[in-house]
Amino acid sequence: MSDTSTPSGGRIMLVGLGPGSHAHLTARARAAIAEADTVIGYVTYIRLVADLLDGKEVIKKSMTEELDRAIEAFERARAGRKVALISSGDAGVYGMAGPTFEVLFQAGWTPDSGIDVEIIPGASALNTCAALVGAPLTHDFCAISLSDLLTPWPTIARRLDAVAYADFVVALYNPKSGRRTGQIVEARRLFLRHRRPDTPVAIVKSAYRPKQRIEFTTLEKMTECDIGMLSTVLIGNSNTFIRHGLMVTPRGYSNKYDVDSGTTHAGEQAGRSLSTGLDGWRAGLHASGLGAAELAALHRLPEDYIAALLAEPLASEAADEPAGADA
Amino acid sequence: MSDTSTPSGGRIMLVGLGPGSHAHLTARARAAIAEADTVIGYVTYIRLVADLLDGKEVIKKSMTEELDRAIEAFERARAGRKVALISSGDAGVYGMAGPTFEVLFQAGWTPDSGIDVEIIPGASALNTCAALVGAPLTHDFCAISLSDLLTPWPTIARRLDAVAYADFVVALYNPKSGRRTGQIVEARRLFLRHRRPDTPVAIVKSAYRPKQRIEFTTLEKMTECDIGMLSTVLIGNSNTFIRHGLMVTPRGYSNKYDVDSGTTHAGEQAGRSLSTGLDGWRAGLHASGLGAAELAALHRLPEDYIAALLAEPLASEAADEPAGADA
């Protein structure tokens, strides 16, 4: 229920610390911690910024006490205090932002009730680990948590299978712990249904911290590697390669350009969709003379989707549009 | 071919600017720009940090000249200069990191050839846009670029369909431009095969910049909204909700806890996998007496995967493990 007697000035700042080293704190993250009267966080994160906490009330919590952290933040803010709730990485990614809003809504808070809530973004583990291994995230990617403490396994398995099939770069969060050792084995099993056993994998532990460790391996061998609570596992897509100790996913320039000369392939144009981009590909469906079932099998897309496209006439030539930036 | 006469000191720093406001630059990003002799980037990003560039060589490029930017960075670094190649967001996410490595490898560069390459991570658009709308990324999420300039449409379509089916939160990058207007329509079509028309969607433009604009809509109506080159589209999963102007994806606490009392549901334990986590769910498969085909249909998982699990005996009771943090 809303509390109309809330002292003014209370606020909650959900701070993403990034990887945790001071060099990778944003100016706003650092300022938010400085502004705070109270700082609440998992003990490991508190330790990362211990030198910034002089004179502040510090509340250290253990790993599974996320809801408690949110509740204490709200209680302090209702008393008029400025509270920094800290997360490693980005507070929105498997972090404190979601649980905090759930607790706040449950307690009757609204954005107008006198307590301001600010989320300060930071680089998540997938970005920081990627930065250390090269450029694995250059194309479509996803994040999946292997923690089944709050999520049924079939939901996780369905996600793993879908992104393995559709050739995403995949970052596995919470890949393994003392109690949870089977999930990474199942992830490998599901990925091997679709992906080559030699698909590059990077395992990064404690990115940008003293005990940082990077290991390159493959989908086949990753379960033999040292993976723990502080690790992020990055699985490449079917084009990802490792060269000179760097893991790189191509953006696709070779689909359009000859790599050596830099000129476009026949039929392709810089700044324009590929000939197999939406318009060209759709025209190709119509021109093929094939039926929806056959095209669906050929392109590995749902038959009803292909049928819908075939049922729609192609747009007439678009009028010349003004030149504009595109990406 | 490696150039053994490279003057020493040349380096390339791939800097992620985050959303672009100075408050959200990391200390390392700011320091890298300060260290640079030459700063190269798309003209919009150069403008974001114009006040940090006094006395430096500044090279502004247009949107599709990514390979040119990488080539010029390499040429300057070979001449001994410190070069900052800037990207908005995170340099590794659809940014300059991948193209830079591709160009460097093509030119014969190796990490030992005297030119150091550092990637400085930043918060990507998905993190910064999420921070402005609430907490949409609390559960598994992905990023898909709707640009078909370098990627065939069937590849993109297959990815859209897969993550809509598997119930990811989805961030669409490059959703629309003057020339590319059909791809967002196709994304909606594919999503509607799996997801409710009232699925919450947030469209964020120019996050943390003067012309910032946030619009909440639904999957059904999103194609009627103003979407452009500076927009990121965030599509919620089947549990995402919008309340009090905030978009929140639950982490799943209600799977384990009674929301009002905070106590665990019968059969669930704090700090342990759900009863429908991997071990419990696998035991349930065996106990069901059902066949692989039926279980596969029930759980929407591949039949061969279910069959493999049924063929393996369940592990005997694990010995008591020492209590340890888990997430």
From TrEMBL, chains A, B:
Its signal peptide is none
What keywords appear on the UniProt entry?
Cobalamin biosynthesis, Methyltransferase, S-adenosyl-L-methionine, Transferase
Which parts of the sequence belong to the Tetrapyrrole methylase domain? 12-222
**What pathway does the UniProt record associate with this protein?**
Cofactor biosynthesis; adenosylcobalamin biosynthesis
NCBIfam families in alphabetical order: cobJ_cbiH
Q: Identify this protein by name.
A: Tetrapyrrole methylase domain-containing protein
Source organism: Zoogloea oryzae
